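Open question from group meeting: does this chain pack into something compact, or does most of it stay loose? Before anyone orders reagents, we agreed to write out a predicted structure and look at it together. Recording both the input and the output here so the notebook holds the full record.
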Amino acid sequence: MVSKPPSSTLERQARRFLETHRGRRSIRAAPPAGRAAERILKPLARRFGVGVERLVEHWPEIVGARLAEWCMPEAIQNAAGNRVLVIRARGPAAAVLQAESRRILERVRLFAGERSPTRLRVLQGATRAPLPDTSKMTKPPSASQVSEGVEQSLETRLLSALDRFGHSVKSRNATDL
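Structure tokens returned:
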């Protein structure tokens, strides 16, 4: 029979074993994904130029608010060595955009740099609807506005009109403060 060493000896041996045979080092944290993507995308952006998503994002700043209401960039195509910006315009606005094409291309060139489109193609059709501007959202109608038109007698219509006038004056005074 094999005799067991005393517990203090076992503890010493275990401690020595653990000191010499520790587990693997902890795994290093993954680098930030943004930094890795930036290393890949920056050279591609320099080589191929600005994408249509970036043009869509800044379109009102590039062409102005009036033209941005009528059209939206759809694609950038390479045709026979020329980069062509394809714009979808609402109905008869295509003629106006065709007339303004030189100015539009100049502004896109200022925004996009040397790899910008050199030609413009305007397609007629419905543009993608922009996201609604939440800052200009209106309040739901008040009870007096809902009851407007429901009144039957002359007296109730007069009271309703006076009530609306009072609310209007109060709202003007609140905005002037």
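Observations to bring back to the group:
The two ends are 98 Å apart (CA to CA).
The domain at 47-124 is CATH 3.30.300 (GMP Synthetase; Chain A, domain 3).
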